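ok trying this again, last paste got cut off
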Amino acid sequence: MSQVDKQLDTLKSEIEQEIPNDITVTDVKYEGPELVVYTRDPKRFAGDGDLIRRLASKLRKRITVRPDPSALSPPARAEEQVREVIPDEAGVTDLDFHEDTGEVVIEAEKPGMVIGRRGSTLREITQEVGWTPEVVRTPPIESSTVSNVRGFLKNEREERRDILERVGRQIHREEMSDDEWVRITTLGCCREVGRAAFILSTPETRILIDCGDKPGAEGEVPYLQVPEALGAGAATLDAVILTHAHLDHSALVPLLFKYGYDGPIYTTEPTRDLMGLLTLDYLDVAAKDGRTPPYESAQVRDAIKHTIPLEYGDVTDVAPDVKLTFHNAGHILGSAVTHFHIGDGLYNVAFSGDIHYEDTRLFNGAVNDFPRVETLVLESTYGGRNDYQTDQEDSEEALKEVINETYEQGGKVVIPAFAVGRSQEIMLVLEEAMREGEIPEMPVHLDGMIWEATAIHTTYPEYLRDDLRDRIFHEDENPFLADQFNHIDAGEDERQEVADGDECIVISTSGMIEGGPIMSWLRHIGPDSDSNLVFVGYQAQGTLGRRIQNGWDEIPVDGWGGGSRGDTLTLEMGVEVVDGFSGHADRQGLENFVKTMNPRPEKVLCVHGDESSVQDLSSSLYHDYNMRTFAPKNLETFRFK
């Protein structure tokens, strides 16, 4: 009998000692980080609201209780009973029964009403029918991504259970080493922006944090081939952690499966969906540009199938000696600061990912409240000594001023923006400004993946700022459903029609003008001197967006908008830069993130910034807070303990 089987036998005995004698436990299994308890008496379990909580506390495990198949009501009868228990106002749109696990997936417009106060309605459902309810939100805006991901995971449930069981046994395996050390190896994004990737290793465990590409630098990928990374074989990785879905952090995660990785990806639920959306688009753009994509859509599906979504604040075992906790990073939907507790109090490391410290219209500010952090790996995109962004209110006023001036001269405003995060922030500003009469009402055309990304935002309002979440819960107040927003879905003909029409605003991907529909808009509107191109986000070095910002006016538009390969155009439209809408903290925000940590970390590794930015921030934190700071290069290894 293996060590894990002995462990499960012991846990089953402990559970049986804690529960009433008339409750039968038929099996106990690990599925990913959770301990799954099967019982013939799910109704009795549900009758005691605190029983599972007490067991989880005593065993220090995340526990899910599932009914033994013999305890289940027939699905047709169970559906009637479930619908009787759930209030009509919950807006149930679908019930899906899975007899292999005894779970019923309930899709509803208002999941909170299905859950009930402290889970009371869920317990009532189990008491009535024996099935274990799982609740998901019906997207207020139809999302093909959410629908496809849910459908795919439903079809792959059996294989996914096998994956989770294998992962669970790996997490709870016996520790083999008596050594105690922690190492971080930098595989990318050091003294540069993009291709984020790190290896966190202990004598027991190797974890990859992020695996992205570098905007504007084709072929520059993380140093995955080195022995600390995949040089020892992708199968030697215990876990992959994805902080958020932007491509400079996520683009190459599916590539790991091409190299033989078969383990878990831990991220938040919205990041999982956005990763699917953005990586599939990444493949599509590569194909249109005549480049050979680094992987295929099958590997994107592998990545989704292996994802274990976690919520903010959940402490989760991801290896025998590592616990992981996600916290809100305030950057984009589902973005997470990742905190690792290593060993039995041995060491604590936090990776900021990308963060925004202050509240924005979309998100609450980044969380930096941890019991302990000895080493912080901190993004430094705006870490330079002069990188102070305009106040958000001033930024919004500046944007409204550009829009009003452009409208008065009969032009159009074109805003290149990331589909995820920046676009939704700008949409909220425009919706309010038109509602308040601060800018004229006019169409706002959304091109590229912006509408789909917006639909995903409305699917997960619990990840948004408190007041915005409340507005989305009330359909008539949902700002993303305002009449002025128009999704461009008919391609080039519709773009030409908009370009020939009256004053309007266009928000289009890509945010750094590296291909995508923005190239068509430059072709259609670029020659119009009455119109304006407005940058609202960071333009990385080497991107066309940075070159235009720096004064380029001869623009390559290879084939976009109905032209031919090799075409260029002379940009006649005005170019404006409106700072303050970035999803990244500025210099002050980064310093405040560290300053307000209590206790503060002993060491800070400043990464994900141009060379001057990381060195400026590192030097400042050292002088101001008397902590050891570093501006590492790629392929450095730091050993702690």
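PB: full thing came through this time. The CA atoms of residues 187 and 223 lie 5 Å apart.
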